[in-house]
Amino acid sequence: AQGQWFFQNGPQRVYVELEATPWIWRISVNANNELVVAAHDGQPTEVEACVQDELGRAYLETDLGFGLVHTQDVEHVANALEAGRWPLREINSSALAGQFGYVVSPAQNQIATK
Questions:
Q1: How far is Cα 84 from Cα 94, in angstroms, rounded to an integer?
Q2: Among 83, 77, 89, 45, which Cα is nearest to 64's?
Q3: Which segments of 1-114 are extended strands (E)?
Q4: How far apart are CA 64 and CA 33, in angstroms?
Q5: pTM
Q6: pLDDT tens, N- to C-terminus, the chain (114 residues)
Q7: Shortest CA distance to 18 belongs to which of 3, 32, 2?
């Protein structure tokens, strides 16, 4: 609920530090020449919108959540945008975590609040 993930290790919670976003999206083309989007753990998802930051990185808003597109799959995003398949929004990367409700570094937040 707070945009943080953890592992319970006995009485301790070990929080997950994110390198970028909660999800990393992989995009492939199926036998019907349709784009298939799946999470880094293989869960299929439906894209609601594409987001681009000031550095040109591509993210997807999906029914599973928000995440970064894997570098090897950016060409699929470009083709989908060119075909008008997904709406595109631009946002500053510093606003991503707040807007999409996740915490990149729970440990850093704990240090800042002490």
A1: 27
A2: 45
A3: 6-9, 12-15, 23-29, 35-39, 44-45, 47-52, 58-62, 66-69, 88-90
A4: 23
A5: 0.85
A6: 777 777 788 998 888 888 899 999 999 999 999 999 999 999 999 999 999 999 999 999 999 999 999 999 999 999 999 999 999 999 999 999 999 999 988 877 655 555
A7: 3
